[in-house]
Every structure is written in C-alpha cells, then in structure tokens.
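To illustrate the input format used throughout this study, we show a single complete record. The first block contains the structure-token representation of the backbone; no residue identities are included at this stage. The design step must infer an amino acid for every position from geometry alone.
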C-alpha cells in the first residue's frame, strides 16, 4: 500500500477505524467491539454505485 501499511489477510484482525457518528452522535470505533462480541466486516465492490 502507498502509505506503508499492510493489507490484512483472511483471519487477521482488522486495523482499528472510527466511523463519523452513530444516530446518537457518538463516534463508533471497531476497537469498541473487540472482546465483547463477534464483528463481521463485509466489503462490496460497486455496492451503492451506478456502475
């Protein structure tokens, strides 16, 4: 990757990230779910796009 970070592989922990806000205005981080519940991250190419 251009910024020098490593792309996670299947089964690796995803790097932490923060989403702008939940409906109550609080930011949501991936790390807030670690150790407490299962998390599934799904990425879809061209989802919600015209092409």
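Output of the design step:
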């Amino acid at each position: 990757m251009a910024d020098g970070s490593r792309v996670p592989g299947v089964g690796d922990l995803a790097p932490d990230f923060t989403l702008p806000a939940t409906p109550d205005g609080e930011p949501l981080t991936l790390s807030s779910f670690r150790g407490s519940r299962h998390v599934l991250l799904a990425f879809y190419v061209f989802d919600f796009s015209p092409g």
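Structural context for interpreting the output: The beta strands are 18-19, 28-29. The chain has no helices and two strands.
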